[in-house]
Design goal:
Largest sheet: 11 strands, mixed
Distance between the termini: 49 Å
Strand content: 25-35%
Structural class: alpha+beta
Radius of gyration: 32 Å
Number of strands: 19
């Protein structure tokens, strides 16, 4: 067998024999992989720029490799039949091509990257070597007559559904901002792995025993008509970063916002960009997904101790950040806050579980949030007004979906609780005051103040028997026990 970056064959072709020169066939059979080719794969790993703790090599072979291995085992069993060795014993001695390739490559890749070997699939760094063979479908066509026994989960997955039979979750633009796929090669490689796996499972059928396989394919296998192409891609599984952010500017959105009608940007920046521009550069990544415990409107500041957030950093080339590195990232983000309007605290390494849990600590309705609003009413505010506001405790209101978001959300009536309220006068402005609220999460504060043309009842204006409008709003606390 010879394997190379440009091409690979499981059997040496006649052209290769003629061009081998002085190299003997015996010496060729002893070679698993030419050292130059292994080093080419290792150099490809270096070129990708990753610096992982561990490196593993994944080999994805054409499905025809499975049929060729079975045919080779059958030929070997036939040759050793006279020696009294059983077919099963012979088959157990046949080492898979993928195992040989992996062993040959992984040692050199780890040495080239200066890291340890190994790591489980789905964790850390992997250099995937995928082989493509033009006659793959032709050589495995005889397997098409065998039905593959699959579990319910496997059938659902192949129909485009998630595990357990439920439909795949739609992307939630209200929670996450997706700037890149987690693994751009995932679908391609998963399909290739499935084709090879299906072939090996079908070959377990009783009609394809070592004694019978010769009825369906050549034993021993014939030399391939064409060379095999090789695709090499390096990828590191996502790592996760968490913390709390403060938004200090009323012209900054949480995620980048483009007006669909005009194609122009709304706002002068975003929380996502302010944080990711530093974190992704320092971790050697070009994309991420951002999750947070809710979001505030563009014209609303996020103050106090901040809003919890987590970032899923895709394909990081520098994944081994220390606590000191994260402190430096936090410092850099905060030094730019006068420009970006964004600060962070508690920036640190997180986990996949924490990333998915952000904003999901208990049920959403059990959480509470605190706000400060600058309110103006249609008459001078009195001490009696302030006393009436302060007397409200766990006030239940009913809110229809606000008109400003009705185009993207179902028109429902939602009960919400105003836990407590207090006020502060604004000197020199008798009709204006600061309203401090603690409310059930999910309460629309703006609509509670001005009633949204009666879609929220009771509203602040209704309680004070006058018109009320909100001038400015700040989030001052998010009641969330999540920690990165």
């Amino acid at each position: 067998m010879r394997a190379s970056v440009g091409a690979t064959t499981a059997t040496t072709t006649e052209d290769e024999r003629s061009s081998a020169g002085k190299e003997t066939e015996k010496r060729r059979e002893m070679r698993v992989m030419e050292i130059d080719d292994v080093m080419t794969i290792a150099r490809r790993a270096i070129d990708r720029g990753h610096r992982p703790k561990e490196a593993r090599v994944e080999i994805i072979l054409p499905a025809a490799t499975a049929t060729r291995e079975r045919a080779y085992a059958a030929a070997l069993a036939k040759a050793r039949r006279n020696e009294g060795e059983s077919a099963r014993a012979v088959e157990r001695k046949v080492v898979g091509i993928d195992e040989v390739l992996r062993e040959a490559c992984e040692r050199e890749v780890a040495r080239a990257l200066g890291c340890a070997r190994g790591g489980a699939r789905g964790e850390g760094y992997a250099l995937t070597v995928k082989y493509k063979y033009g006659d793959d479908a032709k050589e495995t066509a005889f397997l098409d007559k065998v039905a593959l026994t699959m579990t319910k989960e496997e059938r659902n997955e192949r129909r485009g559904y998630g595990w357990g039979g439920g439909k795949k979750r739609k992307r939630d633009f209200g929670i996450g901002h997706l700037s890149s796929p987690e693994d751009p090669f995932e679908e391609e490689f998963a399909t290739a792995r499935r084709l090879y796996s299906d072939a090996t499972r079908k070959l377990e059928n009783e009609r394809f025993t070592l004694e019978e396989i010769g009825k369906y394919t050549s034993v021993p296998p014939q030399a391939p008509r064409m060379r095999v192409r090789c695709v090499i891609e390096a990828h590191h599984e996502p790592i996760h970063v968490g913390g709390w952010y403060m938004k200090l500017d009323r012209s900054v959105t949480q995620s980048p916002w483009i007006n669909r009608e005009t194609g122009k940007r709304v706002g002068r920046g975003s929380v996502v960009e302010a944080i990711e521009s530093v974190v992704l550069r320092r971790l050697g990544s070009s994309g991420a997904k951002f999750n947070s415990s809710g979001r505030e409107d563009m014209d609303v500041r996020m103050l106090g101790s901040g809003r919890p957030f987590a970032i899923q950093v895709h394909n990081p080339k520098l994944p081994n950040a220390s606590a000191s590195d994260f402190a430096d990232m936090e410092r850099e983000i905060n030094e730019k806050s006068e420009i970006t309007g964004v600060r962070v605290r508690g920036l640190c390494a997180s986990t996949k579980e924490k990333y998915h849990d952000v904003g999901k600590d208990g049920t959403e309705n059990e959480k509470e949030k605190s706000y400060t609003a600058l309110v103006r009413i249609s008459r001078p505010a009195t001490d009696a007004d302030f006393a009436h506001i302060a007397a409200q405790s766990r006030l239940v209101i009913h809110q229809s979906t606000p008109t400003r978001v009705a185009h993207r959300r179902a028109d429902l009536v939602r009960p919400r609780v105003i836990v407590s309220m207090s006020t502060d006068r604004v000197p020199g402005s008798p009709d204006t005051f600061l309203l401090h609220l603690r409310t059930q999460a999910g309460t629309y504060i703006k609509e509670f103040v001005h009633s949204d043309e009666g879609r929220t009842t009771p509203s602040l204006g209704e309680l004070l028997k006058c018109k009320a409008e909100i001038i400015q709003l700040d989030v001052t606390e998010v009641d969330d026990e999540w920690h990165p």
